[in-house]
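Sharing in case it's useful to others searching the archive later.

Someone asked me privately for the predicted structure of Transcriptional regulator with XRE-family HTH domain, so I'm posting the question and my answer publicly. Question first, with the sequence:
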Amino acid sequence: MEANGRFGRSISDARKRLGLTQKSLAREIGISAGHMSNLETGRRSPSFTEVPALDTVLHTKGRLMRLWEELTDSGDADFLDKLALLERSATSILAYEVNLVPALLQTEEYARTIIRAGAPWLSVADVATKVQDRIKRGEWFGASETPLMHVVLDHGVISRVVGSGAIMDAQLQNLVELADSERIVLQVIPPDELRHPGLTGSLWVLSSADTLDVAYAESVHTGQNVDDPAHVARYRFLFGRLQAVALRPGESVQLVRDQIERVKSNGT
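And my answer, the predicted structure tokens:
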């Protein structure tokens, strides 16, 4: 695969500039020397955790992450795949979702349900791999102090039962726990808010100390992933508008708690 080859050569060049051996770089990343050799020769693709780790250890200031994103931008990797790379270097994340709980905050069964529903052609093994990758991202996030994360959800995200009542109950409980522990700031847009900037889709802004801020927004027809400062500023402004129409954090968490009780009482 040409993408692997180009990325591997970039790893090798950056490693040699720092005077590192494959073995020492592998030790820093937490992988075997054999796997590092396979990455540099293009025989293996990097995992979603290895790209940001390489970028950090090799001091490439986001260049390796952007290169891998560019090389895989052929339809094989959607924004959620790219997001997994960007999260690791982010200092803060502003996330608005209109349909689903953000991947970083999903429980295992919630993730399994939406992955199966969204890609019914995947084998059981492929679904399991995607679920575990997503759960590892969540575990990393829960154990870390950064990135700071401010989440705004459309009311439909918490009111629509995904999978079953038990699955949704666990997912909503997880949101409450993350908010109560101050790992996230959570706001919910109430159902009577009939006009706001998030009606057409998701909106994310990721900030980093070492790279350009990145924004992603969905429109009616497509999604746009940008790092131009002027465009990022516009999306940050839109996120501010979403915060303004959402309930305050305390009210939002109580709304989620109320929804948990409704799910339990309905027994769906």
